[in-house]
Amino acid sequence: DRDTDKKRIEELLEENMVLEIAQKQSMNESAHLGWELEQLSKSTDLADTRKSFVFELNECASSRILKLEKDNQSLQNTIQELRDASLTSKESSLKFVELEKENQQLSKKIEKLQNQIEKEKQSNQDLETLSEELIKDKEQLQVVMETLKADKDRQIKDLKQENDHL
């Protein structure tokens, strides 16, 4: 888009220069025609015809100058619009770049959060495994305690019986 806009601006500038040159040539022609008319007006035979001819030439030249000025103004407006559009395009490009950077930052944050979540999942699995091992150990200790308690109760009972026999 920028390249197209630049090319279009260059084309319009060239066209503007051509129109300005044409306008200058027209003004030169008009001045030359005015000079010729002055030369013709010096001769007395064609005084009335010359005045009419000079008037027509001046009208034609003025009309052509006005047309060229109007075309020039139109081209200037088009150039300004293209410049404005080019600025808008640049602003859009800058905004896009900013949004792209923000998107990259958010992607990095998301990646960090995903890594953190993975670590927490692993930590939870480790804790779960540890918890299961602790529950098994507890159950084994309870079995051992019950066995020890049963042995102790039996020993106490045996000691009481021995004591009663004595």
TrEMBL record:
* Source organism superkingdom: Eukaryota
Coiled-coil stretches are 58-165
What GO molecular function terms would the record report?
dynein light intermediate chain binding; microtubule binding
Q: Give the UniProt keywords, A-Z.
A: Coiled coil
Tell me which Gene Ontology terms the entry assigns under biological process: cytoplasmic microtubule organization; cytoskeleton-dependent intracellular transport
Gene Ontology cellular component terms for the protein in this record: centrosome; cytoplasm
User: Which protein is depicted?
Assistant: DAPLE protein
Q: Please spell out the taxonomic lineage of the organism that makes this protein.
A: Eukaryota, Metazoa, Chordata, Craniata, Vertebrata
